[in-house]
Amino acid sequence: MAYNWNWSIFLSDTPAGDATYLGWLFTGLQWTVTLSLSAWLIALSVGSLFGVLRTVPNRGLALLGTTYVEIFRNVPLLVQLFIWYFVLPELLPRELGDAFKQLNPLLQQFLAAMVCLGLFTGARVSEQVRSGINSLPRGQKNAALALGLTLPQAYRYVMLPMAFRIIIPPLTSEFLNIFKNSAVATTIGLIELSRQAQQLVDYTAQPYEAFIAVTVMYLLINVTVMFLMRRVEVNARVPGYIGGSR
Amino acid sequence: MISIRQVSKWYGSFQVLTECTTEIQKGEVIVVCGPSGSGKSTLIKCVNGLEPFQAGEIMLDGTSVGDAKTNLSKLRARVGMVFQHFELFPHMRIIDNLTLAQIRVLGRASEEARDKGLKLLERVGLKAHAEKFPGELSGGQQQRVAIARALCMDPIAMLFDEPTSALDPEMINEVLDVMVELASEGMTMMCVTHEMGFARKVAHRVIFMDQGRIVEDAAKDDFFGKPRSERAQLFLSKILQH
Questions:
Q1: pLDDT at residue B227 is higher than 50
Q2: H/E element holding A55?
Q3: Given an 8 Å threshold on Cβ–Cβ distance, is B132 in contact with A239?
Q4: Residue B11, in any domain of the structure
Q5: Which band of pLDDT confidence, cut at 50, 70 and 90, is reported for residue B135?
Q6: Phi and psi torsions of A161, nearest 5°
Q7: A157/B83 Cβ within 8 A
């Protein structure tokens, strides 16, 4: 097989003439990072909220939490994305749906992908938050309540600070996953990193270079995230407790 | 001060407490003992509402614990509780363990709370450890901190739920010493414990429980002299033979 390696392709101008092919990849990288980070914010807040709800001594609230988790983690991500992007705007009240459809198409794609990824990942985060809370000794909650703290205060000052420390490793995996999962946004047309790679192949017929470059970019993102989370883990260490001894 | 009347509790269809009745006066020290599974810990947790009960009534300084209208958090803030496994908050420094509820529940200024915390740490002999984390202290030290933490709230009574059961033998006395001192100062105390030496020394009354019932509720001397129930005699003969 004769394949003509041509790494200089990244520096040549695209047909549109407004950027180099490397420039395309960077635009894609920006979309991937922006999409993933904003979805992560949603996932973390929604996941924490529902994770807590699943542990409170109130059947109604716990059921609400369970319902959310079971719906969002049991439907394939791709199906969810199509529902958010294609189906939901039709089900909304007419004015709202029309307002959405009149947005800049790029913004439509971004919003749908952000909400979809955020809520999908949030369901997984909420399971981790729940297991973190449940892994605490039962006496911790009792001790907090016995001091006169209210239940919300017990969560805020006693249980959640430890629960979040315990679940840093699985949360890191989830944070990494969201960057990789963000590639599904390509199916509704968002020009994120993997989409740019496909475009590059279409335009230059240099698939190896394109996908190697994209692979390296995903790797760089994830190495950065791992490094960051490692710092968080070290800073959150509790002396004399799990992982606390140096 | 604490009055327990006809309290019964079920886990599903299993009855863990059966018509428990007793009274604890201000300044009294009561020791609750009995075989494991007899409901001692459950009963003491009912006193500050950590465990709900289905029948009967518990009055704490004139307030009903079981009443749905009672503000339980407020009531609990007035009663100190010490647990078998210390339950210090591991992510907070010792001093922060002591000030958390003072600031968040009693609304004390952080300076005032800190002063109070340090004073009580000094009293249990641990002032030098104020800036450490719980995981850096021994079990006995942690339990003394836990007692200091409860005392920071200026409680009207103290509940002890097997405070020495999780400790190494050589650390038991340092905790008991603090409890004896507290008792001698006139603190109202309800202690679930197997430390009969402690009971002999400071208790006014001893309550013996078996299978969820209060089998014996007697003045200390009567209890150790001639327990009326066979079950209590058997229990005492088993734990006092060494």
A1: yes
A2: none
A3: yes
A4: no
A5: very high
A6: -55, -40
A7: no
Which structural domain, as residue segments, surrounds residue B94?
A: 27-53+70-240
Quickly count: other Cβ atoms within 10 Å of residue A74's Cβ: 8
Q: What is the CATH number of the domain that holds B150?
A: 3.40.50.300
Does residue B62 form part of some domain?
A: no
Rounded to the nearest angstrom, the minimum Cα separation between A139 and chain B is 6
Q: State residue A246's pLDDT score.
A: 43
Among A10-19, A196-205, B95-104, B115-124, the least confident range: A10-19
| Chain A residues closer than 8 Å to B85 by CB | 137, 139
Half-sphere exposure of residue A46: CA atoms within 13 angstroms, side-chain side: 20
Residue whose structure tokens are 């008792």: B183
State the residue for tokens 């999962």: A181
- Which residue do the tokens 């205060």 mark? A153
For residue B60, being part of any structural domain is answered with no
Residues 6+ apart with CB under 8 A from A6: A206, A209
Q: How many residues does the structure list for chain A?
A: 246
Question: Are the Cβ atoms of B150 and A147 closer than 8 angstroms?
Answer: yes
User: Which pLDDT does position A37 carry in this prediction?
Assistant: 97
Q: What residue ranges do the domains of chain A occupy?
A: 26-236
Question: What values do phi and psi take at B234, rounded to 5?
Answer: -60, -45
Chain A residues with CB under 8 Å of a chain B CB are: 137, 139-140, 142-150, 153, 157-158, 161-162, 165, 238-241, 244
Average pLDDT on B124-132 reads: 95
pLDDT of residue A243: 54
Question: In this structure, what token pair is assigned to residue A181?
Answer: 């999962």
Q: Answer whether B171 touches A (CB < 8 Å).
A: no
Which contacts of A202-206 are long-range, i.e. CB under 8 A and separated by 24 or more positions?
A203/A14, A203/A15, A203/A21, A204/A9, A204/A21, A206/A6, A206/A9
Q: What is the bridge-based pairing of β-strands B29-33 and B2-11?
A: unpaired
Query: What's the CATH number for A26-236?
Result: 1.10.3720.10
**Is B5 contained in some domain?**
no
The torsion region of residue A240 among left (phi > 0), alpha (psi -120 to 50) and beta comes to left
Count CB neighbours of A103 within 10 A: 12
- Count: domains in chain B: 1
**How large is the average pLDDT for residues B201-206?**
93
Length of chain B: 242
Between A and B, how many CB-CB pairs are < 8 A? 86
pLDDT of residue B58: 95
Q: What is the ipTM of this complex?
A: 0.94
